[in-house]
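Hey, I'm writing a tutorial for new members on how sequence and structure tokens pair up, and I'd like a real worked example in the thread rather than a made-up one. If someone can provide the structure for the chain below, I'll link this post from the tutorial.
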Amino acid sequence: MVAGICVSLYFALRRRTNELHSQVSLYEELISAIPDGLYQSTPDGRFIRVNEAMAQMLGYDSTDDLMKIYIPRDLYFHPKERDALNRKLEKLRSDEIDVFRLKKKDGSELWVEDHSIAILDESGKPIYYRGLLRDITARREAEKKLDETRKRLQNLLDNTYDIFIDCSPELKVITVSERVVDVLGHPAEELIGTEFHTLLPLNSPVREKLIQFSEQGEQESIDLSTISMRHANGSWHYFHGTVMFIYGDGRKKVHIALRDVHQQAVAEKALRDSEARYRALVENFPALILQLDLQQRVTFASPSLKRLCGFSQTDAYDDDFLERFVSPENRDEFEEALLEAVDEKTSRFELTVNTVDGHKRRAMTTVFPLYNLGQIASICVIVQDITREKMLQEQLQHAQKMETIGTLARGIAHDFNNLLTGIIGNINFVRSEMNADELYHTMLGEAEHAAERCAEMTRNLLAFSRHEQASIEPADINGLIRDTVHMARRTVPPTIEIHLELAPEISAAAMDYGKIQQALMNLVVNARDAILRNMDHAAAGRITVRTTEVEINEEFCTHHIDSWPGKFLRIDVSDTGVGIPEKHLSKIFDPFFTTSEVGQGSGLGLSTVFGIVKNHNGWIDVKSTVGEGTTFQIYLPVAERTAVLDGEETNAEPAGGHETILIVDDEDVVRNFAATTLERVGYHILQAADSFQALELYKKHRTSIDLLLLDITMPNMDGIELLRRLRTINHDVKAILSSGYTEGDTIISELLDQETSFLPKPYISQELARIVREVLDQE
């Protein structure tokens, strides 16, 4: 029985032993499979047990090698580190995670996460230590790198943004960074609780964008380019910002990061404003601005290029642009100026430039160097169009020349009229005393006719000098042209057609009918002669007379120095003649200038037209092309009132009388002729050769003198001043003023009244006797 029990116990014990061996094997397999290090160690620093992972972790070849080490010396960098760890473990009653470093076999660091505990006896002393070590070296390195990255990012963030503001989803400020007071002048506590968008301009699109972002909450973040925020001093400060939703403290917040760009924004705005100003200056500058590199290639052309000569800015960059732009006669001077600019010299000169359509314009040109960092970087060329100024200058010079010539012609005409008065008057007087069948009567008639032709020439000279009085009245210009052309057809060969293009319902012109008819006749005759000189090149010719009513504006006046704004009638007289060479255009209105052969023209035709038109407050233009023809354009003012018909003239033979007349003239021949004529019809005559002699005679005979016949132009004291002095003696004295000039020449018209009349020279006996009787008979 005992033996049976023993056998049963034996088999039970063996079975139990086998089970324990199985569990131990399983346990050993589990320990070997764990990647973390497992250990048991004694308080005196020896391992009791380690697994393979522990050996590999610490760099040992096997667990046996690891079991041989002395832990305080071989596993720790300082033995005190293990003592501190053990003391800590002895106080614990359960596993606690700790992190520390161990020394590997090769001396390198191994950072581990330790799950260890001390097994104590009943007295509280450690029996052994057991624990689990997890290699966290790689994780620690990653955490270190992550921390470094975080610090770098934080540093970058701190340097990128100056203010951080956290707001509620309703944009109420929760927290602000400390720098807000430095940047915006607001203490942090002052902003907390306020609505962030109240710091933005009221109508700012950024403000609306920010409110929309916070209300909708659909986007994670938005960038705000340039925003303005109110500074504590009331000014606006510029920022770049980023707005994003963040989560912290269990709630959603709006995080606003702002970078101070105020100085940059102010500088950029100043730069933009400066660029805008200079761009506006360059684009609107009336002169052309060209920039050339040192190889004389155009690198910039202002928009004025198009206005100046029609070239586009793109054309300016062509290699041959300067060759096309600068006229050949100035090309050497222009290139020399470019070379001087490279030598740091400035040049200013007149330049002729070509337009895209082949015309030429005059320009004042300045060439100077442009510097960059103290070195010549490029060349600037400023081209100011002075074509109009040159044209006006030439017109002014021409007007001054014509005025000078007119003054000369006027003086000549006056002297001629004085001489012709004696010549024509005496011839007329002698002929009236002779029988018509006498030989000398005919010869004197021819002399008188020649003298009258001279008188006509002096009248033309006075017309040119614009000192021949014109009787201005409203008149039908179309009717005048028809009448003139009707008369002119008798002088124009049938091979020349006269074509009329008269505007219907045209206004009346303010004109002297006879003078304008004379001017128009001169132009038609001039056109005829031009066509006849061109007949070798054309089988027939054509003269076209055209009328147009035009409105002259300020723009037109800027190009025509003699014009002024208003309504005018324009008469065009065109021909298909030889044309006028350009070199002659500035001279064609000069007296006695003619391109006709000797004996075929006096040279006064066009100068007479010029004077007549000027005397009508008008002007005349001419356009001509050699070989094609010429067009003269006369501008006359539109009449402001209707025509007034002149009264009928009487041709009654003037009667004589017995009154006393004082004749004052410094020309003996004129004075003697007048005295002889008036004595012949019964008048008593007193004569004076100058004004001072006349004053003495009048003082002696004032009660008997009935009429004064005064020459206006005399030395020392003229006739007008003499009349004024005589009228201080006798206010009612009657007078006739006479001159080789015309009634409208000086201030004569101011003196003309019932007591004073005007007699132009030259005159004949009948005219003198008639006007003397008319003045004496006036009440």
